[in-house]
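User: Run a structure prediction on this.
Assistant: Running it now.
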Amino acid sequence: MTGVHSELVSHDAQAIDDCWNRIGIHGDRSCPLLVEHIHCRNCSVYSAAATRLLDRYALAQEHRVSMQGEDLASDVQTRSLVVFRLGEEWLGLPTRCLVEVSPVQAIHSLPHQRSRALLGVANVRGALVACLSFVELLGLDTSLPPSTSARIMPRMLIVSAEGGPVVVPVDEVDGIHAIEARLLDSASAPAQNSNARFTRGVVQWKNRSLRLLDEEHLLSAVNRSLT
């Protein structure tokens, strides 16, 4: 998965002049604008690059590529899910949507945000990647107090969307699990609310209620948030 991520990020880096990595805060700091702006994220050049990144997501809608892996169709025993937590909710997303799990990165907000779910951009290996809130998209309650356990650390999921990778902050990642297809197929119907379209069902797994996300509808909402 790391190789896929590197290819996607490399494409973004080549299309945008990442001056912040050459002469800016992550480079030799020779940029004359640093005296005025102190940090690259305060510069209009950085903001313009981030805007171009988001414009690319919009253009990519014209070249939609299916992310359904034909090799997964033959898997009738188990299905692979990445299981993660947002607030009190445990959620499962098909692993084919996942590029990788990353440590937490700083999120830089953008002026004139395009949607409430768009948190800003994060610098992933020198490339700007849009950062989205699944909490906002799914309408979740995240009032759960932060865990004091040193073993529980927030992470970021890098998810494959149509226009390129997006970063999603999560409170905890349980891991990637092969879960019996029989159990997933017997999932109970989601509660009827405004966000039921993003949920295929709910199953009891490892003494938890695991909410199974509908990747097609969720990723469609992700793409709308970026355009």
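The domain at 1-65+75-227 is CATH 2.40.50.180 (OB fold (Dihydrolipoamide Acetyltransferase, E2P)).
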